[in-house]
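User: structure tokens for this one?
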Amino acid sequence: GFTAMAANALSPALLTALLTRHAPLRRLIVGYSGGLDSHVLLHLLARHRDLWPDRSLKAIYVDHGLQAASAGWSRHCARVCQALQVPFQVLRVDASPDAGESPEAAARRARYGALAAELEADAALLTAHHQDDQAETLLLQLLRGAGPRGLAAMPASARLGSGWLLRPLLEVGRAELSAYARAHHLQWIEDQSNADPAFDRNYLRHLIMPLLDERWPAAARNLARSARLCAETIDWLDAEAEADLAQAATARADALSIPALRALREIRQRNLVRYWLRQLGLPVPDHRHLQHILHDHLTSGRDRRPCVRWPGGEIRRFRDRLHAMPPLSPHDASSVLTWRPEPQGWPPLDLPALGQLRMQQTIGAGLRADRLGDRPLTVRFRTGGERFQPAGRRHGQELKKLLLEAGIPPWERDRLPLLYEGGSLLAVVGLGIAAERAAAAGEIGWQTVLHSPSAAGSGIL
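Assistant:
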């Protein structure tokens, strides 16, 4: 009975269906821990690899360095992969937690960070998360007070790095995996830490889920179905937020129109702000911080400049716009850097806490190349009193007034790189080129670009 059940539940059709939805993928990488679940997934893929002849298969073991036995586990994994004729790789990571971070979260962050770095656009990481894992994840999210996105638990497919993360076994229960492993005489590692109830997931798995299963035998399956329904709701909410973002968007991806936000009901405001922050790659604030954002920024006067901060992000107001960004790093506006050209062009210049300044050759824009020659430039920052005459202006003006007129937010003004040749201000990144040094139509020019970790700090000349 177990063997037949495992055969039905673990048909290669599970994998084929998922891979068909991701036709461009050519490299399949199994996250292989040596445990039962990932061993079953690896064995299933290796056994049926002829069904996907145009795709390569590889296994990666992540060594967190947290347990003395991990080196022995990696050797076990290597032997299994050799027997299955699957290429094998070990990734060693630093899983030490940050302040206030749980060991579980730190290990997960380190693991997925290392695996994401291995993925190119045609590659997918396949993990062996199954139906019981999904049920546990949903319960953990409920106990944390999560909303629909958290209750959607783990998606069957999601972007990871430049590639994809696929979970083909989410419809399969732990019992079916165990039956498959026994039917095929697999040997796997039993990690003793998985039995330690000090970890939240283990507490649920060993103490709570058995009680639920005793009373409701279909508990795991039903909880996983609830997660799927929440995922459908999230798809709909994201579609609504995308439509609202089209109305509230500005010329800058990191800025939203406050009048457009005010026109929405509060529930749609919250949904839009969360979606917008995710699109920017910023962490989403909790409910309390989100309420502060909507109250402090949408009800204050146009001349007010409130700022709401949460771990990993902040939102500021300037005029009629909300601006989102990572926390601003300390910046020394008195610093001066020298930028020297090389025979093949201008090398990138690192600006501490701001990003990297680069020169791109262009036609009819930027600084006139024939006037620059091979002389070094200095990069400074606004300290007050500077005057500037950008191209298109008949007279010079105080830089402070030009920046205000251009609508550049106050927190960015002292962080804009100023390019000098000797005592002459040639360019202000994000504002313009000095009129006397700007390339005319048809002339070769050097365009200055600031590549910043924050969209708010980026500028092009």
